[in-house]
Amino acid sequence: MYTRQVDRPRELRPRHSVLNQWDLLEAIPGWPGGKPDPESDPVEIPVNAAADARVAERLRTAGLRPSDTLILVHVSAGNPFRRWPEGAFVETVVSLAGREDRRRIILSSGPSDRAAAARIAEAARAKLGHNGARILDAGEFDLDELRALIGRSQLFIGGDTGPLHIAASTMTPVVGIYGPTLAARSAPWRGRAAKTISVEIDGLPCRPCDQRACVPGDYRCLTTLSPSTVLAAAEAALT
């Protein structure tokens, strides 16, 4: 360590972060070389059998039937720069749940955003009326349980945050929502057989940003990303 320097551009390039980190390995003497490929070198997170059993029981208790289509929507992000507005999540969840009788939706979040997840669920249920029961309440999930839950889902929707990359270890279709970050850098590292759709606003001169401050002040990379765009991606991923 600290004996070789790996040069890299300072700007945020549209190059996947896995490849950026791989550059460091090539400085190791005797490193055989070559680049990783998501087809042959995917992200792997094995399913914990005990966690999977717990999730299966909790889904059954929450009312999920074998014939239902389970959609997991993760509403959290580690900082406000990556959080899609609550109202946008509400509109998307209502549209997804209202379009088909068999759809069931679970909202997940990190510890700091559980109140936000509860508000989104409450608002969506109110808009859905008698169909509000399509939004299931299965409690909170630890990371092993979240991995199992994603694997049991027919669709995962979420921003550029940890659970999105847990989802990369599954074959579950993924819709990723990107604000200040680029999908070219941060999309799930997975093969082509795993359906992955990235949603982002192109053409903003302030994007990508360093996430220390929103210079325009309105988080336009997320606030201008419409629910209809995410919904269209979700419907495409479900087909």
List the keywords.
239 residues; 6 strands
Q: Work out the strand percent.
A: 5-15%
Indicate how many domains the architecture comprises.
Answer: 1
- CATH fold naming: Rossmann fold
* Class from helix and strand fractions: alpha/beta
Q: Tell me the number of helical segments per DSSP (H or I, 4 or more residues long).
A: 9
Number of strands: 6
CATH first level: which class? Alpha Beta
Mass-distribution shape: globular
Percent helix among the residues?
25-40%
Distance between the termini: 48 Å
- Rounded to an integer in angstroms, the radius of gyration calculated over CA atoms is 19 Å
CATH architecture: 3-Layer(aba) Sandwich
Low-confidence stretches: none
Mean pLDDT: 92
For the biggest β-sheet, the strand order reads 3-2-1-4-5-6
Mind describing the biggest β-sheet?
6 strands, parallel
Order of helices and strands: HHEHEHEHEHEHEHH
CATH homologous superfamily - what is it?
A: Glycogen Phosphorylase B
